[in-house]
Structures are given as C-alpha cells and as structure tokens.
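Quick one:
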Amino acid sequence: MPQKFAQDNLRAFFISIGKELVIAPYDGGIDFILKNSETRDSYKGKYRNKTPFKN
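Output:
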C-alpha cells in the first residue's frame, strides 16, 4: 500500500477532533490545517528547527 501513496494512486488525510486539526500529506509535502493563527504560530515555533526548511 505505501507504493500507492507514493505513486499518487491513493490519498488520505487525518483529522484530530481533540486538537482541531487536519493533516493532508501529498506528493512532495504535507499540509496542516489548524484552528487559528495562534495555533499555527505555536507549531511554527515548536518545530522550526525540526525541518530542513526555514521560513
């Protein structure tokens, strides 16, 4: 099944009702849909040094 995701033949997303967020991975990245800008800023600060990309 991982090949289907990698070849873009199968898609999935994850919902957390408790954290009020949606995670949508796609070929080449991942989208996080958060409940508000304060939550976004908190996650950006928390994970800033955990990714190879710097914004």
